[in-house]
Each structure stands twice: as structure tokens, then as C-alpha cells.
Write a structure and sequence with these properties.
Blueprint lengths: L4 H13 L10 E2 L23 E2 L16 E5 L8 H7 L1 E10 L3 E2 L1 H12 L4 E6 L6 H11 L10 E3 L15 H19 L4 E4 L1 H6 L9 E5 L5 H4 L7 E9 L7 E6 L3 H11 L3
Parallel strand pairs: 1-5, 3-4, 4-6, 6-7, 7-8, 8-9, 9-10
Antiparallel strand pairs: 2-10, 3-11, 4-5, 10-11
Helix pairs in contact: 4-5
């Protein structure tokens, strides 16, 4: 979940601190942000559902995000405390919150927002930002240690992408190693939470590591300038992150917005099959 350019300047220091690499002397938590809330009416964007806006809208061609019936968001500490009732009224049907990174980082936004999302009736889950200088087994153990298994929560998410801005880890493993580490992480989390994790990634990472060769994966694909069918030709996908500069009622600043690939009925079926047991 890449931080948008608008947040980049204010978030850079927090990101640098979150790049991992120090011994596990205890969880390192990033600083919570308290951004002001924007009004979607001031940021109307063609191709988006009526309840949302975008501070940097794209001129969509062909299939637009509004074509899909089910939308949700992903957030981290940068959005602060979210008014989930307002977000739900605007059309937010699910949310993933950053939970952990590497083997010693915890995002305080998860504890701040997860319970409130559940109370408002928004299905919620946590995501882990993968760090290439730690074994996948250590990172899976860290996520499991910090994010309790909870019946009805969304599957955990593996957020895996290149991180060229990390000051402490410039590692770019070969594709076979990447896929092997992914399988290890996904297997360990599936065993613990009772449901397969979702995999979030970006076009360059997907292509560089031949992720299309992985089977049995629900992909969550970033594509902010075109439909996933253009950025990931021939790929199956379950979730589409279509903007990183979205405006949603109840959410501070800007936020990532996502669509589910199917109808409302398909969404209910997916939830029934894929939530934590």
C-alpha cells in the first residue's frame, strides 16, 4: 500500500523508522497521525462511486471503479482514528489495516481502528508489509504474535512489493526465492488463522517475480491508472486498489480505495467462505 505523494513528505521519517533491521528488543510503533478530514464533495471524480472523491483523479477509460458494487479501504496510522459509521454510510464495505512490518514493527493504527470498524459492521483484517532482510518464517511469527485470531475477521494480507526507499535493506531476491518465501509466509498464516491470506502487490513486483505462476491465490492488485486487465494481462484478481489519493467520509486525509471483483451477492459468498474461523 504505497503512501501517496501528498503524504510522502510528512510520512517519510515515520517510514524510515519502520524499515526494520534492529534486533527484536520489543515492538516499534510508528507515530499516529491526526490529519484533517476532507469532503468528497470538494473532490468529485468521474468513474468513482458517488460517496467517494479523489484529490488526484484519473481519466478512466473503459471499465471504471464505479462499475463494481463493493468497495473498501486500506489504512494505516496516517489516517488516525476513523469514523467507521460515516465511512460505512458512504459505501465502505470492508477494510484492511496495516498491522505489522518485518519482524519488529507494529502499526498503532490497527489497535486504534479495528475494534471500531467491527462495531460499525465493517469487516476488517490486518496486513503485513514484507521485509526482504528477514526470513518469511520470522515475519509470519511476528504477525501471529501481534494479531489475534478472531472469528469473522477478514483473511490476513501479505503486502509484498519492492521497497527501494528503505535505508537499511536494498535486497532484491531472485524470483524463485521470492515465491518460495511467499509460500512459507502464506502457509504459516493459513495454518494459524484457518483461511488463506490475500496477496497485495504492484505491477512491477508481479512481473519481476512471475507471480502469475502462483496457484490458489486471491490477488489484490494495485492499478491506479488503468483497469487490472490492462496492468496484469490475463490475471485473475479479487481486489483492485484503484487510487491512493481517495477521499472518504470519516477518514482523515487521503486514503487508498479498493473494489471487490464481483457482485454484492458474490461478496457475501466470498465473506462466508474466507473469513477467519
Amino acid at each position: 500500500m504505497r503512501i501517496s505523494t501528498i503524504l510522502f513528505t510528512t510520512a517519510l521519517c515515520a517510514l524510515v523508522l519502520g524499515c526494520g533491521g534492529r534486533p527484536d528488543s520489543g515492538p516499534v510503533k510508528g507515530r499516529l497521525e491526526t490529519p484533517g478530514r476532507l469532503d468528497p464533495a470538494d473532490h468529485r471524480a468521474p468513474g468513482l462511486p458517488a460517496g467517494f472523491g479523489d484529490t488526484d483523479p484519473h481519466e478512466w477509460q473503459g471499465i471504471t471503479p464505479a462499475h463494481y458494487a463493493v468497495h473498501g479501504l486500506d489504512a494505516a496510522r496516517y489516517q488516525g482514528a476513523i469514523d467507521w459509521a460515516a465511512a460505512r454510510r458512504a459505501g465502505v464495505s470492508f477494510a484492511w489495516l496495516k498491522a505489522t512490518e518485518g519482524g519488529d514493527r507494529v502499526d498503532p493504527g490497527f489497535d486504534l481502528n479495528a475494534s471500531a470498524a467491527r462495531a460499525a459492521g465493517v469487516p476488517v483484517g490486518g496486513y503485513h508489509f514484507f521485509y526482504f532482510c528477514r526470513p518469511a518464517s520470522e515475519q509470519a511469527a511476528w504477525f501471529i504474535r501481534n494479531i489475534p485470531k478472531r472469528q469473522g475477521d477478514l483473511p490476513p494480507v501479505l503486502d509484498i512489493e519492492w521497497n527501494p526507499d528503505s535505508p537499511s535493506c536494498k535486497a532484491r531476491p531472485d524470483a524463485a526465492t521470492v515465491r518460495s518465501e511467499m509460500r512459507t509466509f502464506l502457509s504459516l498464516l493459513e495454518r494459524h488463522y484457518g483461511t488463506r491470506p490475500v496477496v497485495y502487490t504492484t505491477p512491477d513486483f508481479y512481473k519481476d517475480n512471475d507471480l502469475g505462476s502462483l496457484s490458489g491465490v486471491d490477488f489484490w492488485l494495485r492499478a491506479v491508472t488503468a483497469h487490472p486487465s490492462e496492468r496484469y494481462p490475463g490475471e485473475r484478481w479479487t481486489f483492485w486498489q484503484y487510487t491512493g489519493t481517495g477521499v472518504v467520509p470519516g477518514v482523515g486525509g487521503i486514503v487508498d480505495i479498493n473494489a471487490f471483483a464481483g457482485s454484492r451477492g458474490a461478496w457475501e459468498s466470498w465473506l462466508a467462505a474466507r473469513t477467519q474461523r
